[in-house]
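Study this protein:
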Amino acid sequence: MKKTARKGPKRTGLSAGPLLPLLHAIVRRDLREFVVDAGMAALADVLEQERAAVCGPRYVHQPERRAFRAGHAVGELVLGGRRVQVERPRARTVDGDEVTLPSWRTFAAEDPLHERALEQALVGVSTRRYARSLEDVPAGVRTRGTSRSAVSRRFVAATEQQMATWLGRDLGEIDLVVLMVDGVHVDDHVVLAALGIDSDGKKHVLGVREGATENATACTALLGDLRERGMRTDQTVLAVLDGSKALAKSVRDVFGRRALIQRCQAHKARNVLDQLPEDLRPSVREALRQAYGSGDAARAKRLLGNLARRLRDNHPSAAASLDEGLDETLTVMRLRLPPKLQRVLCTTNAVENLIGSVRSLGRRVKRWRDGKMIVRWTVTAVADAATRFRRIQGAREGMLALVLALRAHDTLEPQVKQA
């Protein structure tokens, strides 16, 4: 019996693959327009129902009528990051006063444009390209509020409000255990940022302050402001700082004997290596790594002392840099904390990551107008970074040991100097 070939569907020269993106675009566009149109129609129905509740049904005689229909007027509501014109039904009382419909009052009061402008800036959209980043609206809908100047004004308003909120927050509820302070150069200014870590290992941005230089006056002013806002200075804190003497002096001026200074080991190693020839740096770097990784403060001090003696004759500047503040680079090691937490607290990496967010956002600014603008952008950057904060590594195993060590230091009597 002769078999007949089964015929399949007739092939055409077009495949479904290239058509899918086009179909998706059409469906997406139609769905968006459908949703917007349906929403506009629903809003119009709600407003008309509210007007009917105030004015009564159409063409029905009501002797005790409280209000009358007064046609329609063009109003504006926020839709998709812009303002759109919407016809709103009007009503007037028998005395001629305007009646505001409840739904219109609610929708008109909800103005998320400031937040939208701020969010677009955080994700890298410039004010010039703001309009291009928004979804299209159906043809015939009149819009405004997407120009460069309008977006810039909203961004300034949003950041000023955020700055006032952040720089005025109450810090009294934070059980401060660790304090980190670092500065970033922005244009001709220096912005200091203070980061706190509480007893649960959670990070908190305590405050920022602008100054001409990273000197003791600016640092003391920052810490003084934090104290006025409720930061406790009557309990011992671990202050993790870089090699700046101004920062250390300011912390001591504000906290007194309640401050345990930990100098950043990464900064110390960098300062020493920068003063050595290239061929000598690998061996010295390894010696520093072994000393700081030993886990024992006495052994680490002995190894670092030996290294300083080896460098003293041929490289006195490097030896002097190593000797300067050496004991303060071993403060955390003396507290005998678990290794993971010890690694976190022996450097200023946590606050430097925060400073990195400030630099990243600041690179989008072409021209800094004044110090207030710098503070606004800095607060915006640190507030955005704070939304991604997590507990520091080793907090679960070591924070209790750190708190107990600091509270034990509170009970120590101040040393009396001998005459």
Q: What stands out?
A: The longest helix spans residues 16-55. The chain has 15 helices and eight strands. Strands lie at 67-79, 82-93, 143-144, 176-186, 189-198, 203-211, 237-241, 259-263.
